[in-house]
Design brief:
- The complex is a heterodimer of chains A (255) and B (305).
- With 255 residues, chain A is an alpha+beta fold.
- Chain A has one domain: Alpha-Beta Plaits, CATH 3.30.70.20.
- Chain A has 8 helices and 11 strands.
- In chain A, the strands form 5 sheets. Chain A has a 3-stranded mixed beta sheet with strand order 10-1-11. A two-stranded antiparallel sheet of chain A has the order 2-3.
- Chain A is elongated.
- Chain A starts with 12 loop residues before the first strand and ends with a helix.
- The relative contact order of chain A is 0.21.
- The longest helix of chain B has 28 residues.
- In chain B, 49% of the residues are buried.
- Classes of the chains: A alpha+beta (255), B mainly alpha (305).
- β4 of chain A pairs antiparallel with β1 of chain B.
- The structure holds iron/sulfur cluster (3 copies).
- The site of one iron/sulfur cluster (SF4) has 14 residues of chain A, from α3.
Chain lengths: 255, 305
């Protein structure tokens, strides 16, 4: 059924991604591919993996942006440019257009926890769902001819054969910086909901009307580079040196 | 968006086919003539050919029947259902025309309405996608319907001229429809070229309150499915040139040729009508190619173009 659940789902499982913390190492990209190529559905194929024109199917990608404040084009003027690493996977939208456009019933949103999935045995590989997703969260697997997308690691989070600590998405478990968090965004007392409330977590492209479940935490304000640069600059004078350094300063002056 | 030849072929061919079938259904052509009989068959062939070519881009065409199941929510599914259902009146009409040389008004009218509905569903597949702002307008189905009607009327003019019956009505209607279609398309293009983007790199990343957002590094060095499928770009100067060419080939010249049909003798009329259809089809292919090539997908906000 490609109609969306008629009632709000009791749970809204999803991710919270902290843009202040992500270091852009792509570890989650690799762990996502590693887990999901052997798990749910067809393998995530690569095309020409050892050729010049290598490409392949991934469910999670890291973009890197430069954000330049007004006047920041000139170094040292108003605010510095900053680099933000930006992980992007399916946002498990509440009004998911990818679900309603699907002609076959392959794409669906689970009524119990809001996870958006593809039943690959029904998918004809028409690609319309990928067109409808403004976020680019769906990629057609060219070998299998079916649509692939983030499953929120549905085969881990409920998997009782795994140790409890591992019952989270692979990307969350892997992230060395702890930039990805998993939880129930429908429960206001959950850790992720509180994090979103405290840090002002937001939706991507709210104007697309998709009401994403996943939230992004903004980078924290940073003090300007110039403010912390003072100590780093090689100083010409040694006024105020004390103790051992004052002695060393004096000795070196004498040589 | 990537202009896939199979989809361009599908929308052009099936559009022309449904247009012709609708004109036949309205009883504008004398069903007893040989050329009208052939026209019935040609319409069905064009529609079927278009549908077949649309399955060429599927990853798993053997399961295509499943696409008929989700008509409650999906325009693509509705199109599939309508296309199948429309074959019923069209085949009955064709049968009676070819075998008995008779026109069945009720079946014909039902068929004509269903042709229109099918073309509308095709257009709504595109028009309903908010992620592709260029298409997300009521003008999209209007263009598709008018282009289909104009194509059908041009084709029926050829049929009328060949059968030797009076072609004036068809030619006049074709002339009006061609003008209306390109007028609607011009409005569509005008909207496209003055569009304020709904989504920007700033809204896509949510970082706009810090400053201007620019892509620093892509997630991957080579193309992937997304950039191949949605990253197609065409220089604006070419788009403008091509759209003018399409209007000239598919609009201005066919209109002039319809005047020739109305005023000229039978041989000139025949040549003019055939030429008008051929040029119109070329114009339409250019228009369809641009429809895809010019459309920018919101995901490109993450890819810096
Ligand atoms: S992010 Fe894209 S694929 Fe995921 S639910 Fe939203 S629209 Fe669908
Ligand atoms: S590609 Fe598959 S999942 Fe996506 S819309 Fe087509 S049939 Fe549905
Ligand atoms: S939740 Fe699982 S499938 Fe989704 S991005 Fe993370 S690792 Fe990949």
């Amino acid at each position: 059924m490609t109609s969306l659940p008629s009632l709000p789902t009791p749970k809204k499982l999803g991710l919270v991604i902290d843009l202040d913390v992500c270091v852009g190492c792509h570890a989650c990209v690799i762990s996502c591919k590693e887990w999901n190529t052997g798990g749910y559905g067809a393998a995530l194929s690569d095309q020409q993996p050892y050729g010049a024109d290598v490409s392949g199917t991934f469910l999670n990608r890291i973009h890197t942006f430069e954000v330049v404040p007004e006047g920041g084009q000139v170094i040292g003027e108003a605010g510095d440019a900053r680099i933000v690493h930006f992980p992007k996977s399916c946002l498990h939208c509440e009004d998911a257009p990818c679900v309603t456009v699907c002609p076959t019933g392959a794409s669906y949103k689970r009524a119990e926890d809001g996870i958006v999935l593809v039943d690959e045995s029904k998918c004809i590989g028409c690609g319309l769902c990928a067109w409808s997703c403004a976020y680019g969260a769906r990629e057609m697997d060219l070998a299998a001819g079916v649509m692939k997308k983030c499953t929120l690691c549905v085969d881990r989070i409920y998997n009782e054969t795994l140790k409890e600590i591992d019952r989270v998405p692979s990307c969350v478990r892997t992230c060395p910086a702890n930039a990805r968090h998993y939880g129930d965004l429908g429960d206001p007392t959950s850790d992720v909901s509180r994090m979103v409330a405290e840090r002002g977590g937001y939706d991507l492209m709210p104007e697309q009307g998709t009401r994403p479940t996943n939230k992004y935490l903004p980078p924290r304000p940073r003090k300007p580079l110039a403010a912390s640069a003072g100590s780093a600059v090689l100083a010409e004078n040694t006024d105020g040196a004390k103790g051992f350094f004052a002695w060393l300063d004096g000795m070196l002056d004498r040589i | 968006m990537h202009p896939a030849p199979s989809i361009i072929l599908f929308t052009t061919l099936s559009g022309l086919g449904y247009g012709l079938a609708a004109v036949l259904g309205l009883g504008l052509l004398d069903a007893s003539t040989l050329s009208a009989k052939l026209a019935h068959v040609a319409a069905l062939v064009m529609i079927a050919g278009g549908l077949l070519s649309s399955t060429l881009h599927l990853g798993n065409p053997q399961r295509a029947w499943r696409a008929l199941s989700q008509w409650r929510s999906s325009w693509l599914s509705r199109e599939g259902v309508m296309a199948m259902a429309t074959f019923v009146p069209l085949t009955i009409s064709a049968w009676f025309a070819v075998i008995e040389g008779r026109y069945l008004p009720v079946v014909g009218l039902v068929g004509a309405v269903m042709c229109g509905a099918t073309v509308y569903c095709t257009a709504m597949i595109y028009a309903s996608l908010r992620s592709i702002q260029a298409w997300n307008t009521g003008l999209t189905p209007i263009c598709y319907l008018l282009f289909s009607a104009a194509g059908g009327l041009l084709l029926s003019t050829v049929v009328a001229v060949i059968s030797g019956s009076s072609s004036d009505l068809c030619a006049v209607l074709a002339l009006v429809a061609v003008i209306a279609a390109w007028a609607a398309k011009s409005a569509w293009w005008k909207r496209l070229r003055t569009l304020v983007p709904l989504s920007t790199p700033e809204s896509a990343t949510g970082l706009g309150n810090i400053g201007h957002v620019r892509l620093f590094e892509r997630p991957h060095m080579n193309d992937n499915y997304l950039t191949r499928e949605m990253g197609f770009k065409i220089a604006r100067k070419h788009a403008l040139k091509l759209s003018k060419m399409a209007i000239l080939l598919g609009g201005v010249v066919p209109v002039a040729l319809m005047l020739v049909v109305i005023l000229g003798g039978s041989t000139t009329a025949m040549l003019a009508a055939v030429l008008a259809v051929l040029l119109y089809a070329c114009g339409l292919v250019v228009e369809r190619w641009l429809f895809f090539a010019e459309a920018r997908h919101a995901v490109m906000n993450y890819y810096g173009d």
